[in-house]
Amino acid sequence: MSGPGSLVDIRNLSIRFRGARDVHAINDLTLGLAQGETLALLGESGSGKSVTLKALLRLLPPRRTDIEGTMKVNGADVMSITGRALQTYRGGEVSMVFQEPGLALDPVYTVGRQIAEAVQRKKRVSRDEAMSTALDMLRRVRIPSPERRLSNYPHELSGGMLQRVMIALALACRPRLLLADEPTTALDATVQIQILLLLRALQKEFGMGVIFVTHDIGVAVEVSERIAVMYAGQIVEEGTTHEIIKSPRHPYTRGLLAANLHDVARGTRLDAIPGAPPPLDVKPDACPFAPRCPLAEARCRAALPPVHQIGPRRRVACIHADAPMEAA
Amino acid sequence: MAVAQTDVAEIPVQKSGGYWSGVARRLSRDPVTLGCAAILVALIGSAAFAPWLGLADPYTGSMVARLNPIGSEGHILGTDEQGRDMLARLIYGGRLTLFIGLVPVILAFFIGSFLGITAGYVGGLLNTIIMRTVDVFFAFPSVLLAIAISGALGAGIVNSLVSLTIVFIPPITRVAEAVTSGVRSLDYIDAARATGASALTVIRVHVIGNVLSPIFVYATSLTSVCMILAAGLSFLGIGVRPPEPEWGLMLNTLRSAIYVDPWLAALPGVMIFVTSLCLNLLSDGVRSAMNVRD
After folding, report:
1. In this structure, what CATH number is given to the domain that contains residue B207?
2. Which residue in A8, A301, B104, B177 could disulfide with A33, CB within 3.0 to 4.6 Å?
3. Do A172 and B195 touch (CB under 8 A)?
4. Low-confidence ranges of chain A (pLDDT < 50)
5. Do A96 and B210 touch (CB under 8 A)?
6. Rounded to two decimals, what is the model's pTM?
7. Is the CB of residue A77 less than 8 Å from the CB of residue A71?
8. Which residues of chain B have pLDDT under 70?
9. Domain A6-105+176-264+271-317 top-level CATH class
């Protein structure tokens, strides 16, 4: 996906962390997002979901990271933004909601002050005006009695409440793109769905693009129009949520979908994908999923699989992509 | 039931107080800390207002009234080996002793915090340079280091301040670096950067806001050590020079009188003991009152 209408355009992104053991966290990742669209990045731990988000915000430690490829947000090259422009870009163009709201808010300041500070960074307004913006944001994230919450410290609020504050903080400067890094993982199930509904409502209200990272297919289906499945730092399959759920083409996606609790008779073993994700200390030169794949052939282990473009904005990185598979 | 009739909305909302009001509340329930604070306030107050307390001149002695015992007429706490009023000398001595005990720690607090926070936040090569340099100072026991620097610089108040400051920079730097590198990797630092905070803002607001109180509490625990070291330097003759009243120096000059009047000779020591004990207990009390996470 590219062109003037695109909000995010990541091409051939590769990220390597240097250290005692190198880690090739992202390998040749290409991803696009249109204005106002919600995309779920689906994948297991260590597949590079969070790294992609942090790269988009330039939050990765520059000394220990090699980044190749291009990332464009709203037409601007992310890697070439520096200094003041980077501060405006972070928070103004792109913002992020973190996984652990309890850790992502500074414990020594009231939540009102933290939101007001983020507002003052972007707009030259007085403390009082910034505070009233903060109050308005707390109302928008539907926090009960927001006037009182404004002067609360993070440790005085519950997890769900904190995540609402975090969302208010991230949206205070009306970013065009919101990055959500597993924002519901640390919350309990009843609060999860409230936060998901809130995010969806706010996305409509503000017309933002959202990239939603999760390892939970249920959550991905709930919030997103499109899903990109990640494995070993690559996108193995991308399509609309409907396409991914109804006709998964990649064996990994099929494995993920099979490993759920619906329609499983009591007492039977759950389907699971055998094996574990590959170590990423060398850049993969074959299909990284081949060792765990039931359909793997010799050519899967010989070279990287071709990326099949099987529809507009629908692609699968697998040699079997052209032959639609029966749902497992 | 009368309670049930009360409208829920009418129950006054108890405003949750801020962090500092919580600290004050916890401190007010701690009699030991309060007592120590009272003693220290009395000591510091009497030292600060010594010229207006109507005391005898701490510098003029009398050949006839030497080593008067405690409780003698005109000299409640007796006189020293040159016939100078002990009460006046102890109170005036508090000025110098507390000054030399506090100032180096305050200076070292600023310098050490700056070095430690810089090392901890920037990391990498700068961290290695700062922290390994600090490690060199750790190779010497603090007393030995203070004596060596004071010996090299010569006696005097300013030189004592300099040498004690140098002695206390390394431990404060180390604590500051440890706390900062712990805070630096926390999510709220990334979250602040993600909302567009500059590196300077992150350090000023989020790092300093979170590391300053542990460093400060640690520094207060150093003041008693500093005071004892300062007194020790004076005792050894490489700190404050006579005839200035200073507790360590007084302990030294009264040393020879210990066989004549041991109680009198012990008085400056009692002052050092009481002050450092109070400082330690106060620092402990403040530490536990400020620690909300436990």
Report:
1. 1.10.3720.10
2. A8
3. yes
4. 1-2, 4, 327-328
5. no
6. 0.76
7. yes
8. 1-19, 291-294
9. alpha beta
